[in-house]
Amino acid sequence: xxxxxxxxxxxxxxxxxxxxxxxxxxxxxxxxxxxxxxxxxxxxxxxxxxxxxxxxxxxxxxxxxxxxxxxxxxxxxxxxxxxxxxxxxxxxxxxxxxxxxxxxxxxxxxxxxxxxxxxxxxxxxxxxxxxxxxxxxxxxxxxxxxxxxxxxxxxxxxxxxxxxxxxxxxxxxxxxxxxxxxxxxxxxxxxxxxxxxxxxxxxxxxxxxxxxxxxxxxxxxxxxxxxxxxxxxxxxxxxxxxxxxxxxxxxxxxxxxxxxxxxxxxxxxxxxxxxxxxxxxxxxxxxxxxxxxxxxxxxxxxxxxxxxxxxxxxxxxxxxxxxxxxxxxxxxxxxxxxxxxxxxxxxxxxxxxxxxxxxxxxxxxxxxxxxxxxxxxxxxxxxxxxxxxxxxxxxxxxxxxxxxxxxxxxxxxxxxxxxxxxxxxxxxxxxxxxxxxxxxxxxxxxxxxxxxxxxxxxxxxxxxxxxxxxxxxxxxxxxxxxxxxxxxxxxxxxxxxxxxxxxxxxxxxxxxxxxxxxxxxx
Length: 522
Description:
The protein has about 525 residues and is of the alpha+beta class. The chain folds into four domains: about 1-90, no CATH class; about 100-240, Transferase(Phosphotransferase), domain 1 (Orthogonal Bundle), CATH 1.10.510; about 245-330, Serine Threonine Protein Phosphatase 5, Tetratricopeptide repeat, CATH 1.25.40; about 405-515, Tetratricopeptide repeat domain (Serine Threonine Protein Phosphatase 5, Tetratricopeptide repeat). Helix content is about 50%, strand content about 10%. It contains 20 helices and twelve strands. The chain has helices at about 100, 110-125, 190-205, 210-220, 230-240, 260-275, 280-295, 300-310, 320-330, 335-345, 350-365, 370-380, 390-400, 405-415, 420-430, 435-450, 455-465, 470-485, 495-505, 510-515; strands spanning about 1-10, 10-20, 25-35, 40-45, 50-55, 60, 75-80, 85-90, 130, 140, 150, 155-160. Strands 1-2-3-8-7 form a five-stranded antiparallel sheet, with no helix packed on it. A three-stranded mixed sheet has the order 5-4-6, with no helix packed on it. A two-stranded antiparallel sheet has the order 9-12. Helix 10 (about 335-345) runs antiparallel to helix 11 (about 350-365), helix 12 (about 370-380) packs antiparallel against helix 13 and helix 18 (about 470-485) runs antiparallel to helix 19. The longest helix is centred in the first third of the chain and has 20 residues, at about 110-125. The model is unreliable at about 1-10, about 10-70, about 160-170 and about 240-260 (pLDDT under 50).
């Protein structure tokens, strides 16, 4: 295993985990090694993050499973390893660096989103009785998509035992320390973290800063901790400050008094969403969809719900997503009925019976995705009725409507029945749409010589198209071909192992087994 030095924290140095043998093979992990001057460290692993204390005998402590759920805004901890010299903490590797490096590049939309995500992470920690105690730009990591990952919990502690501090260094970083901590009897609370976040917000403020943002920042910096907002208050406040404003109860008459109709707002939202003649701006798109949604346009309500569900242009909020899906579904808008039914039935978000009814209602309108879901319900017996013949009939209806997923399912069923002519017929329709699972299945047919002349080169081409879209089965099979030198221009074991590793990270058991066979661990 090779190492790449990334940086140094208060209590450990951070290295990238080079899983494979070349400089291009950095995996999505980092590990933390205590400084050489520290002996026998104790590593305490909290849910989805860690704190490090010294100098006690080395051990690892994990919280109960019920406590392990954590938001995306905290750094994930994957475990602890030790050898004769060190204890290693394996965490996420944030490719985007930290906020200090990114701050000069941020526009207002990004600044607001990042502050809101930091507040979301803090709200979770505070709800679990944890005070971070060292919030600063260097401890706010960013993924390659600039999503927040809070890190460096070296000073973090549960509130019950964090009320007293014994040294200035233990209070946090100078310049971010709350006033109540600079006295002879300092008391920590969640509001200490809020003050530090206010300092960060202050560094974001420019001459054209929105007044609401600066007002929220000043509240965070209040000398009286009791007057500072909670982390949840900040999240709520930034929902108002951000381009997408409050939509819980609709707009005021003044806000909706604009000249565009609901359909015009929706069309403009699509332009901003897709970048059709304008720069892509998902937040502005969401605002346009929200306006149209508040005027009762079902397709806008559905689009806004989808964005809340995915955290696309807005802060991810499943409660709001479901609320907008419900509004559109009440208008018998089939896509909303289908998506809401899916959440109820498969996502554990509601009544499964109601989910089945919604999917059937959407299917009755010949909505392709609902027909596929209904076929799956009948194929698996989900909902209490199993009927393979009816399932295939619904798949066929969706496939004839042009649904690539249904076409691929039919192709797979025909492959199982060894009716390769029909399999190729349906898979070809799906591959024309660039659907990755169909491309992978087509590669399998050429690799095995089923219904076509065996051709590893053609197979590799299909696998590559699907692998480029992140399909784990294709990544696994193409990786094996590169390792063996089959169907590719030249053997490339390093590239093959990288592909296997990508597939394994997505949960591919086939790839995990293959990596084990090659003596490579995740």
